[in-house]
Protein: Tubulin-like protein CetZ
Organism: Halapricum hydrolyticum
Amino acid sequence: MKLAMIGFGQAGGKIVDKFLEYDDRTGSGIVRSAVAVNTAKADLLGLERVPEENRVLIGQTRVKGHGVGADNELGAEIAEEDIDEVQSVIDNIPVHEIDAFLIIAGLGGGTGSGGSPVLAKHLKRIYTEPVYGLGILPSSDEGGIYTLNAARSFQTFVREVDNLLVFDNDAWRKTGESMESGYEEINDEIVKRFGILFGAGEVTGGSEVAESVVDSSEIVNTLASGGVSTVGYAAEQVTDDSSSGLLSRFKSDGASDSMDAANTTNRITSLVRKAALGRLTLPCEIDGAERALLVLSGPPTQLNRKGIERGRKWLEEQTGSMEVRGGDYPVSDSSYVASVILLSGVHNVPRIKELQQVAIEAQENIDEIRAESEENLEQLVEDDEDELDPLF
Ligand SMILES: Nc1nc2c(ncn2[C@@H]2O[C@H](COP(=O)(O)OP(=O)(O)OP(=O)(O)O)[C@@H](O)[C@H]2O)c(=O)[nH]1
Ligand SMILES: [Mg+2]
């Protein structure tokens, strides 16, 4: 499906940049338009692929391009004050060509955390296209203010969007790695999963398995449950020998053909289980998910309807949902078969219960938290005093 992606804050901008790179590399064509919004000038300058005219610096009179230092109330205020500047860039998006908006942000900081829900609400008022969020939860070692920001932002963001897709840094962080290289890897994992999911709706005709290809409307219908979504992924390398003359001569008898088909089916069903039971972007109980979508990507010869149908049935049993969709995403030149599962409207999520608890407790020591955030802001202004202004 075609998306207008809006990265809000530093993490959001970097991930949109990564999606653009993914599009270039795979030709999947999911990013119809890419926009980055930030209060920090340096973050916008650091982007590589988002077009310069689509980078919006907001809050210049309030924070002078320094960012909001994890003050998400300030982030929300600035987004409200400067929403027209954001809209003037969104005005250039050919909205009739997109299937949905996707607002991407780290929910632990100030700019994206405070601004994303404001932008979601604004877009919902103006457009009829669905507005989805991709919210990144901070890892638990980032500190109190990040957790509190995430707790608050999450509550508002999930209310304003049509569906909030979530990725939890805490479930993905590795110890003994620098933050930056850690984020590089994590961002690759994010883009791989959501790239296959959204790319699935972009396959155009001519394929031998075309009738079981996932369509954009199936993604939209799955997300129409609302609430919170998580994504699972599993992949296996395959050798596509169907074009090899020598091998196919040996395998031309019916017995080995049906062996191949059985292997293909078995591979698919085990990939579906691995994806659903392995590490999800937001770890949770899959039982109770309202809707699900299963996408099998890979060379067409390695995909079959029987495997997908079995995987779909299994997911129905595991989730208890009556709305489990499934289909192919044929990628001829791929050497992997990958299974991506979107679980939409999940309810039993320990991390979210934890965040809700944090939000309640935070009301009690709000002064301390404000002081931490003010210190952050002062530090930023000091650090930034000798910097040059090459773009703005
Ligand atoms: N997955 C991922 N998470 C990131 C990345 N950068 C930051 N984060 C997370 O996102 C949260 C918010 O950080 P930023 O995006 O830098 O915050 P911001 O929206 O720019 O807000 P301010 O810096 O406070 O103005 C952090 O607490 C991290 O958890 C990234 O590259 N990848
Ligand atoms: Mg920042």
